[in-house]
Amino acid sequence: MRGTLVRKLLARCLTVGLAVLAFLLVALTGATLPGLVLAVAALAAGVWERRVRPGADVVAESVLVAAGVLVGYARRLDAGFDPALVATALVLLALVLLDGPLRDAGGLEIRTANLPVRPGLTTTHVGTAIPVLLGAVALGALLALPSWYALVVSLLVGGLAGVVGMRLARRRFRPSAAASPVARALARHQPEFLLYFSAPPGSEYQVTMWLPYLERIGRPFLVLLREPEFLAPIAAATRAPVVYCPTLKAIDEALVPSLKVAFYVNHGAKNAHCIRFTQLTHIQIHHGDSDKAPSANPVSAIFDRNFVAGQAAIDRYARAGVHIPREKFVVVGRPQVEAIGVRRPPVPMPAQPTVLYTPTWTGHHADANYCSLPVAEAVVGRLLARGATVILRAHPYTAQNPESARQLARVEELLAADRSRTGRQHVWGTDASRAMSLVDCVNRSDALISDVSGVISDYLYSGKPYAVTDMGADGDAFTERFPLARSGYVLRRDLADVDGVLEQLLGTDPLAEARWAMRTHYLGDFPIESYAEGFLAAARAHLAPAAVPATHPDQADQPVGA
C-alpha cells in the first residue's frame, strides 16, 4: 500500500513538474529544443500517471504541454503568424478539454473480458491518442516540419474523438431497439447462471475462491461485476465471460434469457440491482463461514436460497433472532476445504510444531472488531519461546487501519529476527498470502491460533487443534456468542491464560473428540473423498427448477428463529 502511494505521488510530481518546466523553457527563455524534449518527457510521465492513477486529471498539464509545443513549433519555423498552427491549437485545446467528459461518458459503458466482442473505438483509444498526438506535434517541431503536418495529425485524432463522442451520444439519447454486441455475444454463449459481485477494492478473493467450483458445475456461466478494478484480475482467474456493468441499463443488457440462477458471495448494497430480476433464482453462497456478527446478516432473508456450510450456520441466524424460513437454507458444505488434509483425532504433535496465526481485521463496526493484533507481538513471542515455527497470514484488509498495519509490521520484524537467529523458516507477508493459499497454510501447519473468523471453520475440517482469541469483554459468555470456540482453546485478551492455552493446543489437546463432532455440525456430513459434491449437486439441482429440493434432508419445516 505504501509503495502504491509513493508511485502515485512520484507520478503526480513528475507530470506537473516536467509540464511546467517545459512551458517555462520554451515560452520564457527561448530554449526551444530542450523545452520540446522536456515536453515529450512530461507526456510520458502523464501516461505513466494514468496507469498508476486511472482516474488522474491531467488537463492542466496537457494544456501547458500543448502551449509549449506550439510556441516551440512557431519559433522553429520562424514564420510569424501561421493560420495552420492557430487551427492546430484550437483542435488540441478542444481534444484536451473533451478528454475528461468523454472518459466519464465511456465509464458508463459496459466492458467485457473473455467474450468475443469487437469493442470498436472507445474513450480509451482517445485518451491514448492525445499524448501520442502531442508527442507527434512535438516531433514535428523538433524536425521543423511544415505546419500543415501538425494540423493534419490533430484533425485525424479530432475525427477519432468525434466518432467516439457521436457513438456515446447516440447510445445515450437514441438507444437502439436491436441487441447490443455484448448482449448478442452473451446470447450466443447461453449462460445458465451468473455470479454477481460488488465489493470494495481488494475483495476479489471472494470471487476467485468460488470460480473453480462454478466451473465444475459444468454449465456455461458469466461473472457480472459492478466495479471496474475487478475486471482484469477476475478475468485472469477464469475462462468464463466477465462483464463489468456500471449502470442498471448495462445489467439489463447482460441478463440474457438463458439465465436461471444468480449467485452472490456477500451482502453488498448493489446486490439489490440484480435481485430485482424475479425470473432468476437468487442464491447467497457467502465467502466464508464464521461466528462473526455479519455471518447472521438479516439481509440474507431477501435471497431465494442461502447455501450454508452446515447446520451451525442455520442455528446462528436463529441465535441472532433473524427469522428466515427453514426451506430457504441448503446445507452444501464448504467446498474450498476439500484439498485440506484430514487428521482424525488424536493428532500427534511434533516437538517443534508449525503454528498458523491468522489475525483478522478491525471490521467496519465496533461489534465486528475481533482483531488480535494489539496482543500479537506477545502471542508470537510465546510461540517462538516454545520453539514453534510461525506462519503469519493476516487479513487482506489489515492495511486499512494504520494502527493495525504498524502492529503487524512489529510482528513481522520479530519473525524476521528469529529466523535470522535460529534458522526457523517462519513465513509472513506475501509469502503467506499470495505464494501460499490458505489451504497450503493449513496443510503445512500443526495447529492454529485465530481470531473469530471463517479461517477457523476451514481449519476445523483438518481435525487439527486450534485456539480462538477473545478480544472482547464477554468473559464466560464468549463461547455462547461464538460456539465454534467450544471445541477450541480460548485465549483471553489479557493473555493471563496464554501458557495454559499453548500447553493444551500444542500438547495435551483434551478437546480432540469434541472438535471432531463440531466439524460435522459446522461443515456438514459429506464424504471426504467427494466433499465438494455437496455444493455441486445443489447448484445443478437449482439449474433444473423442476428438480429443486425444498430443503436439505436434515432440515425441518419451521422457520429459523421461531
UniProtKB/TrEMBL annotation:
Cellular component, GO, one term: membrane
Record's keyword annotation contains Transmembrane: yes
Transmembrane segment boundaries: 84-102, 123-142, 148-169
GO MF term set: CDP-glycerol glycerophosphotransferase activity
Superkingdom of source: Bacteria
Gene3D superfamilies per the UniProt record, alphabetical: 3.40.50.12580
Keywords attached to this entry: Membrane, Transferase, Transmembrane, Transmembrane helix
InterPro entries named among the record's database cross-references: Glycerophosphate_synth, TagF_C
Protein name, as recorded: CDP-Glycerol:Poly(Glycerophosphate) glycerophosphotransferase
Source organism phylogeny: Bacteria, Bacillati, Actinomycetota, Actinomycetes, Micromonosporales
